[in-house]
Design a protein that fits this description.
This is DUF2380 domain-containing protein. Keywords: Signal. The chain has six helices and six strands, in the order H-E-E-H-E-H-H-H-E-E-E-H. It is an alpha/beta fold and 180 residues long. Strands 1, 2, 3, 4, 5 and 6 form a six-stranded mixed sheet that branches. 26% of the residues are buried.
Length: 180
Amino acid sequence: MKPLYFLLLLALSIAHAETRIAVLDFELNDMTMKPGIAEEVARTASIKPLLEGELKSAGYAVIAVPLAAQQQANSGFGYLFDHDEVAAALGKTLGADYVLVGRLHKPSFLFAYLMGHLIRVKDGQLLGNYISETKGGDKKLTLKAVESLTVKMDADLDKRYTPPPPVRKGTLSLPNPEHI
């Protein structure tokens, strides 16, 4: 009976030791001549669920963040991004070990930067300031930027994330030199 009890305690301690991350909604910092167009608002809204999916695939526990709780902690655009201690306090109320505050910074129609601050909740320490560049607004490119951001975060956490391999649409065939 004792070995079974020990295994049960071990399983509970492993489950309890799971790294818990709260991902906040990303803010759009659109500096283009047409800020806040519907496509960019939608792309920005898609980043959080994409990132949560990548973190879950690596075995992280993703803590739900009620929009009302985030709005209550926020005192305006960029506030949580610039105030690690406030973001950490929000994460603490949610039972998270870490909180990620993100932003989509768009200085041009040609490219944008996915930015994230990873904050350790227990002491409010900024663990990482991550930036991943994406060209254009294509959904596949946004996903690649999210995967890049996840790789960077994971390097500062548990080092267990492996991004999906690139999808290849056929092979490159070179011309036969005899036909040239």
